[in-house]
Design a protein that fits this description.
Blueprint (H helix, E strand, L loop, with lengths): L1 H34 L7 H16 L9 H21 L24 H12 L4 H8 L3 H16 L18
Helix pairs in contact: 1-2, 1-3, 1-4, 2-3, 3-4, 4-6, 5-6
């Protein structure tokens, strides 16, 4: 009996290693896009991914034919939404600065956490509008509106403020 469990554990570990080797890069990119961190310096994205992969490994035997990539992506998105909500009190406060005042980078840096989450799931991951709505507990119309607004913001970013005018020197009389 012990030998059978050991063999199952080895098989499970090999299957999971193969899954991570195939899907790890794309999941890392997804986590990096969600957090808005630069690709070379993304500790928050790596923490989110580590937790999602650990959860997927823990549930590996219970997946029963379910797509492990979908399971890991779903857990990654839920975990990101929860941490963005709890750490920053609202979706909208986590925009231009990350945790501890770190500046966000990339084309999605100007979006709120909710906008980034919906945009990444819809456009980068190709998840359907109804599935995103069910995952986040929002109406499909709201997901559609947020995705449209986020897409418009990425395609047409707000103009930078005009540089200040040089002050005119006072004439001496």
């Amino acid at each position: 009996m012990r030998a059978r469990h050991a063999a199952q554990d080895v098989r499970r570990a090999k299957e999971f290693e193969a899954f991570v080797a195939g899907a790890g890069g794309r999941l890392t990119q997804t986590a990096t896009l969600l957090t808005g961190e630069p690709p070379g310096d993304n500790p928050r994205a790596r923490r989110l991914l580590t937790v999602a992969l650990a959860h997927t490994y823990a549930c590996w035997d219970r997946l029963h034919g379910e797509d492990p990539y979908d399971h890991a992506r779903r857990h990654l998105a839920i975990r990101f939404a929860d941490t963005a909500w709890h750490q920053y009190a609202t979706w909208h406060r986590y925009t231009a600065r990350g945790r501890a005042g770190r500046h966000l980078a990339g084309p999605l840096a100007g979006l709120t956490a909710q906008e980034r989450l919906i945009l990444v799931l819809r456009l980068y991951e190709g998840v359907g509008e109804e599935q995103v709505a069910a995952l986040l507990g929002l109406p499909a119309e709201r997901v559609h509106a947020i995705c449209d607004r986020a897409t418009a913001t990425v395609l047409h970013p707000p103009a930078a403020p005009a540089p200040p005018l040089p002050e005119a020197k006072a004439a001496v009389t």
